[in-house]
Amino acid sequence: xxxxxxxxxxxxxxxxxxxxxxxxxxxxxxxxxxxxxxxxxxxxxxxxxxxxxxxxxxxxxxxxxxxxxxxxxxxxxxxxxxxxxxxxxxxxxxxxxxxxxxxxxxxxxxxxxxxxxxxxxxxxxxxxxxxxxxxxxxxxxxxxxxxxxxxxxxxxxxxxxxxxxxxxxxxxxxxxxxxxxxxxxxxxxxxx
Length: 192
What we know:
The chain has helices at residues 5-15, 19-28, 40-175, 178-191.
């Protein structure tokens, strides 16, 4: 209620005209209904009235205006602080992202180096396995060739031996006498 008391008093004061102004107004009107120009006192009173009205409005609006502007100042300040915090947070995040990107670049380079080393090792391993396979195949081929050569050699020796025996038998039959045959048999039996 105290809040509205000054406003009521100001409105009452403004609504009451001074008796002097009423007397002046009465004297200014001519009987024909024409009005004369306003007097300086009436003009001054209107200006005083306006100043009192504006002062009263200013007085009444001072506290809400101060509260509004204070609230607005606090909102703007807190908004600026939030923006500053958000900017710092984004800068911190950005630097974190940049550090991670730098680490990723290093990790990628390390992975590439490791992959190159592993591929070189794998290449050497594959080449070594291929060499061993080739050597194994060559050894198997040599063994197979040796086995076939021994078989062919045995066959040739057997054929040569058979041919020699056949030839010797044929020579013995044609050139050996019975006494020669007995001597060969006796010599053979003595060796055995």
